[in-house]
């Protein structure tokens, strides 16, 4: 006797257009196995060949810059395969490649919960090298200098902590015409909260951050100090000679506030895959500040990132 036919669960073909380093980090065997079991085939997209020659996809995820898109010829592909979901549109991702436009949506969003508010630190962009010193005076020291453009290079993560006028002068002299954002440094207890968003899925983790600089300490600090990728380790990896056990004690922001921030930014930016760096003002515990937003961050650093990503992808393709 023949068996009744089982309804077939649909399979989805999702292409990933990523650079080799990102593939190595993200597309781990554990993710490939998990997605496969849940009906998703993750397919590598060759960045050197037009997309149209690489078959059709239900969805494409990507972390690229404009020069890569030129080779892929997205418009030509979309003219033929209109139903492919491009997660997210490259034009919208652009807003996260600039440290002014990335925080712009936060200035319109009214995110609050009880007495808690979420804002941004005071910042300004220096257009003209000579204006750096002058402009720095409208901010309080210490100041953080950040490259305006975030282009995926290590240099776009080379930041600088400036303690006084002399520091601004040095930065001015060393800078060869790259555009810089000056942002007020806010004491925040040495912990940064990283809010990872994948569509409606939102998760918050703690990471190490720069330690507070007291008024007294600031008087003894001179000039500037360069740093980069300070938050690229978990709180447990904090170096032993640091006396403050700050991170374990730090409370993550209330879940409702985290969800509201993720949802609000997702809608305001029209993006689905990003993370938000949030700090808590040490002078006013009710005040959280967004200091950075990154497109398609390192999700592998989240515990159980496989279901996090897979659930998001399934939601997306099923609703398309
Ligand atoms: N305004 C600020 N006040 C206090 N600390 C700050 C501020 N801005 C940045 N920091 C510290 O510097 C770190 C790096 O800053 P930011 O996140 O803006 O740089 P980034 O290079 O974009 O980092 P990422 O690797 O997350 O992309 C933050 O994680 C935080 O520890
Ligand atoms: O290096 P990781 O994979 O962990 O991810 C980092 C990511 O690097 P990658 O996407 O090139 O790998 C960075 O992207 P670029 O700005 O340099 O493009 C930026 O988004 C960081 O914030 C991410 O760290 P996280 O915020 O998740 O700690
Ligand atoms: Mg950051
Ligand atoms: Mg960043």
UniProtKB/TrEMBL annotation:
It comes from the Eukaryota. Keywords: ATP-binding, Kinase, Magnesium, Metal-binding, Nucleotide-binding, Transferase. Binds 2 magnesium ions per subunit. GO terms for cellular component: cytoplasm. It catalyses: 1D-myo-inositol 3,4,5,6-tetrakisphosphate + ATP = 1D-myo-inositol 1,3,4,5,6-pentakisphosphate + ADP + H(+). Its EC number is 2.7.1.134. This is Inositol-tetrakisphosphate 1-kinase. The lineage of its organism: Eukaryota, Viridiplantae, Streptophyta, Embryophyta, Tracheophyta.
């Amino acid at each position: 006797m023949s068996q009744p036919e089982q309804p077939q669960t649909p399979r989805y073909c999702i292409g990933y257009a990523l650079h080799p380093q990102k593939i190595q980090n993200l597309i781990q065997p554990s993710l490939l196995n998990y997605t496969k079991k849940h009906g998703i085939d993750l397919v590598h997209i060759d960045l050197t060949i037009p997309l149209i020659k690489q078959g059709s996809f239900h969805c494409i995820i990507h972390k690229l810059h404009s020069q890569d898109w030129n080779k892929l010829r997205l418009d030509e592909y979309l003219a033929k395969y209109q139903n492919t979901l491009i997660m997210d549109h490259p034009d919208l991702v652009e807003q996260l490649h600039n440290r002014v436009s990335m925080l712009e949506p936060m200035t319109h969003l009214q995110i609050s919960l009880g007495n808690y508010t979420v804002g941004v630190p005071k910042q300004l962009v220096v257009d003209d090298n000579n204006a750096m010193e002058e402009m720095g005076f409208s901010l309080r020291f210490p100041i953080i200098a950040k490259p305006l453009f975030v282009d995926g290079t290590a240099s776009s993560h080379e930041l600088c902590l400036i303690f006084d006028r002399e520091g601004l002068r040095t930065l001015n002299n060393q800078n060869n015409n790259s555009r810089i954002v000056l942002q007020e440094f806010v004491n925040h207890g040495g912990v940064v909260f990283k809010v990872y968003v994948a569509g409606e899925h939102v998760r918050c983790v703690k990471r190490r951050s720069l330690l507070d600089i007291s008024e007294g300490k600031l008087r003894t600090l001179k000039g500037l100090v360069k740093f980069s990728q300070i938050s690229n380790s978990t709180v447990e990896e904090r170096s032993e000679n640091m006396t403050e056990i700050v991170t374990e004690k730090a409370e993550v922001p209330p879940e409702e506030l985290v969800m509201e921030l993720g949802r609000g930014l997702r809608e305001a930016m029209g993006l689905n895959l990003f993370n938000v760096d949030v700090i808590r003002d040490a002078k006013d515990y009710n005040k959280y500040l967004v200091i950075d937003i990154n497109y398609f961050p390192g999700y592998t650093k989240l515990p159980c990132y496989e279901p996090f990503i897979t659930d998001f992808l399934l939601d997306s393709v099923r609703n398309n």
